[in-house]
Design a protein that fits this description.
Chain B: One of its GO terms (molecular function) is iron-sulfur cluster binding. Chain B: InterPro entries: 4Fe4S_Fe-S-bd, DPD_II, FAD/NAD-bd_sf, FAD/NAD-binding_dom, Helical_ferredxn, SudA-like. Chain B: It holds the Pfam family Pyr_redox_2. The complex is a heterodimer of chains A (284) and B (463). Chain A has 284 residues and is of the alpha/beta class. Chain A is 32% helix and 30% strand. In chain A, a hairpin with a 2-residue loop joins strand 1 and strand 2. In chain A, helix 5 packs parallel to helix 6. Chain A is globular and about 60 Å long. In chain B, the strands form 4 sheets. In chain B, strands 3-2-1-4-16 form a 5-stranded parallel beta sheet. In chain B, helix 2 packs across helix 4, helix 4 crosses helix 7 and helix 5 crosses helix 7. The mean pLDDT of chain B is 94. The chains are: A alpha/beta (284), B alpha/beta (463). At the A-B interface, helix 1, strand 6, helix 8 and helix 9 of A face strand 5 and helix 12 of B.
Chain lengths: 284, 463
C-alpha cells in the first residue's frame, strides 16, 4: 500500500507519481482529491487525483514543487512509500445529461485536476474543446493526454515559446467571439486565472465550473480551514467541493486566505533547504 | 483507621506562570505516599454511591483499598476490569459531577480524590509494569468499529476481550480521536494516550488509519467484507460557526482547526513540525466550554500576551469544568462574560483587527434550563484582537449518515439509537458517544462503547 510505482518529471517543477492504492482506485471519481503526509512529522497536504485505474489498483497524483512538503515529496522514488495517503475525498463532479459541448480550460498544474473530468466527459460522448496554458513551453503539462480526449486543443504560453503567446483567456474570448457555443466551461488553475475566466464567461452567460484549492488540514469537514464563500454562504471546499459554480465564488477572499501562511511556509522551506545542504556536505 | 482530613491531599502542579509558557502537563500527579494518604480518606462505605456515579461502574472502594494497602498493581488491575482507559479518565473525567459528586466524604468536606487516585494507579502501572499479553480465546467473528475516539476504543477493547476479531477504522493518520487532536498535551499527554492505545493493540485490536468510512468504504462494503456487526463512534467533529460578518477573515479559526494544528500536527513545535499556526498578540476565544478553555490556554502558551474568553452568559452557566476555568484564570486568561460578538472586523489586507461585541443580560431560563441571554441595546463595543477562535460547539459529521441507506438521524445530525441496546435503525449497526448524543464527555462516550460491545455480543450470540 502507498508504494510509488512510477515517477515522471512533467516539467522543471511538476512531477507525476503513480501510487499503489487498490481500495482508493476502486472508489475514486473525477473531481476528488487525496491528502498526503510525506513522513512522520509531515503536514497534511491536499493533492488532486489526476487519474486512477480500478483494475490495476493505482491512483495518479500530479504536484508542483512549491514548498517544503511538495519538494520533500518530489525526492521520493519508485519503491518508496508515502507515509499517509487518504482519500478519495471531496465531492465527485456531476454534469447534466444535457451537456453536449464543453470548453475545458487548464492553467499550469491545474491541467492535472482538469484531465480526469475531461476524460470522463469524452467517454460519455461530450464534445470537448480544451485550452491549456503555462508560463513557457516546458510548463505545459499533459498535452498528449488532453489532446487524446479533446476535439480541439489550444495551447498558450505567456512568452510564446509554445502555441500562441498570451493567456488562456485570450483564446477563450476568441472562441466565443468566433461563435462557438458551449453548454459549460470548466476552468481549473491559479485563482486569478479562474477569476478572469469567470469574468468573461459571465458576460456570455456560459455556466462555469471552477475547482478551488484552499488550505486544508483534515480534508474531511472537521475544521473549516478550507472554507470558501459561495453565493454569500460559507462552504467547506473539502466536503462541499472542491468544484463550485464559478459565478458564485468569492475569489478575492479565497486569494487572501490562500496567502495566510506565506511567511511561515517560506521559513519551513528555508529550514528544509538548509538541512538538505548540510546533509549534502555531511554525506558527500 | 481512616484519614479524617476534610481536604483532599493536594496534587503538585506546575507554577501557573511557568506552565503558561509550555505544553507540559499542568497537574503532576500523586507520589506514592500522597496516594496512600488520600486512599486512607475512603471510608469504604457499604452503599458505594461512587460506583453508581461512574458511567462505567469502576469498583472504586475496592481499588482505593488496594492503594491504601500499597498494592498499586492490584489497584490498577481492579480498575482495568471495567475501564479500558484509566490513565485518560483519571485526567479528563468531570469527577465533580460524577463519582466524586456522590462520595459520602463529600457531605462534610471534600470528597475522596477518586480521579487522582485512578490516575495514580494507571501511571504507576505504566511506569513499573509491562502489559501482559494474554492469550485470548478467539471466536473467529469479525466486528468493525468506525472511529478511534474514546467510544470506539472502549467498544473495541471490550469486543476483543470477548474474543471478537475487531478492526477499528480511523480517518486520521493517528488514532485517539479528540484525545489526540482536541484535548491539549498540557491536560492529557499524547504519550499516555498512545500507551493506552498500544495496550489495546496487545489485546488484538487492529487499527486501520487513513480510512475515511463513507468515502473509501461504506458500511455496506464492511458487511460485504465479512464484518458481522458495525459500531459507529465517529463523534461530533463538525465545527459550528456563528454566521456573523467577517468570520472568513484571516486569523479566524474554528477551535477544531486551531487545536488540530497544535495538538495533532504539533504546530507549537514549528518549524520542526512543518504545520503552521498563527497566533496574534491578542486573542479572543468565543465560547464557555472545555474546548474554549483548551483553545484559550493553548493560545497563551503559543505566546499571546492577552487572551480573552468571550462568553454570552455568566460564569455560573459556563459548561466548562470548574477545574479548567480555575486553571485558565490562574494562567492569566481574561474572562469577558455576558458579552456576545456580532461582527469580526478586518484591516485593509483582510486580517482580523477586532471583534465588535454587545453586552448581554440574563432573562428567564430557556429549554436547557439556563437563563437566556438578551442583548442590551446600545452596548456595542470593540475588543481589539488579531486572532479569533470560535468554540461554540460541534455537531456530528454527516459523512456516515449521508452514505448509509436506512440509517436514521435526528434533525441536528445525531444518529438515532435504541437507548437500551444502542442499535440503530440498520440491523447489526450500533452507535454511541458524541455521534449519538452530540458533544458530551470522554467517559460518557466510553460508557456507550462498553454498552454497545455488550449489545453486539448479545446480537451476534443470538444470530
Amino acid at each position: 500500500m502507498n508504494e510509488i510505482l512510477e515517477k515522471k518529471q512533467l516539467n522543471p517543477t511538476v512531477k507525476l507519481m503513480v501510487i499503489n492504492s487498490p481500495l482508493m482506485a476502486k472508489k475514486a471519481k473525477p473531481g476528488q482529491f487525496v491528502i498526503v503526509r510525506v513522513d512522520e512529522k509531515g503536514e497534511r497536504i491536499p493533492l488532486t487525483i489526476a487519474d486512477y485505474d480500478g483494475e490495476k489498483g493505482t491512483v495518479t497524483i500530479i504536484f508542483q514543487e512549491v514548498g517544503m512538503s511538495t519538494k520533500k515529496l518530489g525526492t521520493l522514488d519508485v519503491g518508496d512509500k508515502l507515509h499517509d495517503f487518504v482519500g478519495p475525498l471531496g465531492k465527485p463532479v456531476e454534469f447534466s445529461k444535457d451537456t453536449k459541448r464543453v470548453l475545458a480550460i487548464g492553467g499550469g498544474v491545474g491541467v492535472a485536476p482538469l484531465y480526469p473530468k475531461v476524460k470522463m466527459l469524452n467517454k460519455n460522448g461530450v464534445s470537448i474543446d480544451s485550452i491549456i496554458g503555462g508560463r513557457s513551453a516546458e510548463y505545459v503539462i499533459l498535452e498528449d493526454e488532453m489532446r487524446a480526449v479533446s476535439d480541439n486543443l489550444y495551447i498558450t504560453t505567456d512568452d510564446g515559446s509554445k502555441g500562441r503567446k498570451g493567456f488562456v483567456t485570450d483564446v477563450l474570448k476568441e472562441l466565443i467571439e468566433k461563435g462557438n457555443k458551449y453548454d459549460e466551461v470548466i476552468a481549473i488553475g491559479p485563482l486569478i486565472m479562474m477569476k478572469m475566466v469567470c469574468r468573461i464567461t459571465k458576460e456570455y452567460n456560459i455556466p462555469t465550473m471552477v475547482s478551488m484549492n484552499p488550505i486544508m488540514i483534515d480534508g474531511t469537514g472537521m475544521c473549516g480551514g478550507c472554507r470558501v464563500t459561495v453565493d454569500g454562504e460559507t462552504k467547506f471546499a473539502c466536503v462541499d467541493g472542491p468544484a463550485f459554480d464559478g459565478f458564485k465564488v468569492d475569489f478575492d477572499e479565497a486569494m487572501r486566505r490562500q496567502n495566510m501562511y506565506k511567511d511561515m511556509e517560506k521559513k519551513a522551506l528555508e529550514k528544509y533547504e538548509h538541512e538538505c545542504k548540510l546533509g549534502g556536505i555531511l554525506n558527500g | 483507621m481512616a484519614n479524617m482530613s476534610l481536604k483532599k491531599v493536594q496534587m503538585p502542579e506546575q507554577d501557573p506562570n511557568v506552565r503558561n509558557k509550555n505544553f507540559k502537563e499542568v497537574a503532576l500527579g500523586y507520589e506514592e505516599n500522597m496516594a496512600v494518604e488520600e486512599a486512607e480518606r475512603c471510608i469504604q462505605c457499604k452503599n458505594q454511591p461512587c460506583v453508581s456515579g461512574c458511567p462505567v461502574h469502576v469498583q472504586i472502594p475496592d481499588f482505593i483499598k488496594q492503594i491504601a494497602n500499597r498494592n498499586f498493581e492490584g489497584a490498577y488491575q481492579k480498575i482495568k476490569e471495567t475501564n479500558n482507559l484509566p490513565a485518560i479518565c483519571g485526567r479528563v473525567c468531570p469527577q465533580e459531577s460524577q463519582c466524586e459528586s456522590v462520595c459520602t466524604r463529600g457531605k462534610k468536606g471534600e470528597p475522596v480524590a477518586i480521579g487522582r487516585l485512578e490516575r495514580f494507579a494507571a501511571d504507576w502501572h505504566m511506569r513499573n509494569k509491562e502489559d501482559k499479553v494474554e492469550a485470548l480465546k478467539k471466536n473467529g467473528r469479525k466486528v468493525a468499529v468506525i472511529g478511534s475516539g474514546p467510544a470506539g476504543l472502549s467498544c473495541a477493547g471490550d469486543l476483543a476481550k470477548m474474543g471478537y476479531d475487531t478492526t477499528i477504522f480511523e480517518a486520521f493518520h493517528t488514532p485517539g480521536g479528540v484525545l489526540m487532536y482536541g484535548i491539549p498535551e498540557f491536560r492529557l499527554p499524547k504519550e499516555i494516550v498512545q500507551k493506552e492505545i498500544d495496550s489495546l493493540k496487545k489485546l488484538g485490536v487492529k487499527i486501520e488509519t487513513n480510512m475515511v468510512i463513507g468515502k473509501i468504504l461504506t458500511i455496506d462494503d464492511l458487511f460485504e467484507m465479512g464484518y458481522e456487526a458495525v459500531f459507529i463512534g465517529t463523534g461530533a467533529g463538525l465545527p459550528k460557526f456563528m454566521g456573523i460578518p467577517g468570520e472568513n477573515l484571516n486569523g479566524v479559526y474554528s477551535a477544531n482547526e486551531f487545536l488540530t494544528r497544535i495538538n495533532l500536527m504539533k504546530a507549537y513545535d514549528f518549524p520542526n513540525h512543518p504545520t503552521p499556526v498563527k497566533v496574534g498578540k491578542k486573542v479572543a476565544v468565543v465560547g464557555g466550554g472545555n474546548v474554549a478553555m483548551d483553545a484559550a490556554r493553548s493560545a497563551k502558551r503559543m505566546g499571546a500576551d492577552e487572551v480573552y474568553i468571550v462568553y454570552r452568559r455568566s460564569e455560573e452557566e459556563m459548561p466548562a469544568r470548574l477545574e479548567e476555568i480555575h486553571h485558565a484564570k490562574e494562567e492569566g486568561i481574561i474572562f469577558k462574560l455576558l458579552t456576545n460578538p456580532v461582527r469580526v472586523i478586518g484591516d485593509e489586507s483582510g486580517n482580523v483587527k477586532g471583534i465588535e461585541c454587545v453586552n448581554m443580560v440574563l432573562g428567564e431560563p430557556d429549554q436547557s434550563g439556563r437563563r437566556r441571554p438578551i442583548e442590551e441595546k446600545g452596548s456595542e463595543h470593540v475588543i481589539e484582537v488579531d486572532t479569533v477562535i470560535i468554540a461554540i460547539g460541534q455537531s456530528p459529521n454527516p459523512l456516515i449518515t449521508s452514505t448509509t441507506e436506512g440509517l436514521e438521524k435526528q434533525k441536528w445530525g445525531g444518529i438515532i439509537v435504541n437507548e437500551d441496546t444502542l442499535e440503530t435503525s440498520r440491523k447489526g449497526v450500533f452507535a454511541g458517544g458524541d455521534a449519538v448524543t452530540g458533544a458530551a464527555t470522554v467517559i460518557l462516550a466510553m460508557g456507550a462503547g462498553k454498552k454497545a460491545a455488550a449489545s453486539i455480543h448479545k446480537f451476534l450470540s443470538e444470530k
